[in-house]
Amino acid sequence: MRINHSNRINFGNLSLFSSPLSMFCNSNATIPTLIIESGVTAGRTFEANKKGGKIEASERFVEQGTSALIWIYGVKLLQKMGEKLGKKILKRDDFNFDVGFDYLRNPLESLDKNAIKFKTINLLSSAAVATLFIGFGLPKINHFITKKMLKKENKKKQKEHIKVIGFEEFRKNFKDISFTSNLYKLANIFENNSTFRLLVTDIGVVGGRYHNARNKYEKKECLFRDIASIYFYLFSTSHIVKLLNKLTSNTDIDPKVLEATVDMLKERLKKSNLTDSHNFLSKTLGSGRLGDLRKIDELFKGRKIITLDEFKKEFFEFASKAEAMSGLQPELNGMRILNKTQAKDVVKGGWVSNPEFLHDVMNRVTKGAYKDKKRYISAKKVEKIRQSINEFILQLQKSAEKKNCTVDSSFVENLAKNSIRKSFAFYSIATAISIYALGFLIPKIQYMIRRKLTNNDEFVGIKDYK
């Protein structure tokens, strides 16, 4: 089945929602983080000014704003600087590859081991430098600014001597550095998953700010504020969106996956005579013979992938479709492979199980990277994409059944538009809740704790200066 791309869904006025929604769905997008951090910086500065005056407001603005800029732009800049150093050390021009891998993809298998080691060091050290600066360096800068604002003298200077290894010595000993697969995976997560990156580094930041707090009251405030913030920075948005989707029976589906699915359905529905919603469900999801599905379960017992040759040996009549399906990921160790979902899709026969359609989906979501051997797309992400398609089909069927109507192109487009509206609204609501909690609610509770501990609202950071 060839998809007519000239017939793609026209979201009309929803195009304003679909682009920002795509950014919400991208785990490494910077704009959603920038929106949250801007709101949090403004909120915490405002609340600090109300309670502790301009000195505390200054500290909160510098602390929050600088930390955000470092995480959004600084870490990437450090990584680029590290890559320039790597090119000199290894005499290699290309570090454009991913260091993550799992049972479905392994971009590392044919790459130079020293290049992999260096990129891993670069990614982890960039995050470590940023963490140390935010946790230990930035508080010192803030304290210095505060002292200057209070016109305090007798500034203490402290010098630390750091042993710097020579360039040639580093180059000579680099090959002896020992690495494990877990380090490669960790480095990949730091590069491609902002949520995990922030979660791990927050531990260092919390420790650093606690260590550098100027007295016991500030230590308690820092500990509460930073630990309470972790949930709203990293998890609250996804939890709120998931809850709202469940309450409204909406599908959490990437806009690009939705677009490809609607294109396919429109093309198929032109050539199909559907009588009711159940007929639509059997056409789209398929079923397959029970014996074939059980045989696949046996093939995958204790395994997550099988080779294409193993599958063809058991299901020769599906050889052509299986070959097309195995192209959804690069060869692994020189062999074409299938995961369990792909193997079952081959024998099911539904519209959403068509390899050409799934190739179109992956091409749009990854911008063609799904076929690139140097790129890593986790098996978990692939499975989530595939599952979201099924969930949208079920949403269509249930909605048509509820309205007692036949699923046609118009019905599909209208429900897709409605889904885009809801998803954008849910992510916006979840983001607003996070900003309110981080920028206003947590500071208010922080200042309640301060009043209980000190019996006043004065900024605890300057107590020792007085």
What would your notes on this structure say?
- The chain is mainly alpha-helical.
- Among the domains are: 28-242 and 430-462, no CATH class; 287-349, no CATH class.
- The protein is built from 17 helices and two strands.
- The protein has helices at residues 15-25, 31-90, 113-149, 167-173, 181-192, 194-212, 216-234, 236-248, 255-270, 277-285, 290-299, 308-314, 319-326, 340-348, 355-366, 379-403, 409-454, and strands at residues 305-307, 337-339.
- Helix 9 runs antiparallel to helix 15 (355-366).
- The longest helix is centred in the N-terminal third of the chain and has 60 residues, at 31-90.
- Residues 1-15 and 153-178 have low confidence and may be disordered.
Low-confidence stretches: 1-15, 153-178
What's the pLDDT, averaged over the residues? 83
Helix and strand composition category: mainly alpha
Question: Within the largest sheet, what's the order of strands?
Answer: 1-2
Overall radius of gyration: 27 Å
Helix segment tally: 17
Strand content: under 5%
Distance between the termini: 77 Å
Q: Got a strand count? A: 2
Order of helices and strands: HHHHHHHHHHHEHHEHHHH
Percent of residues in helices: 55-70%
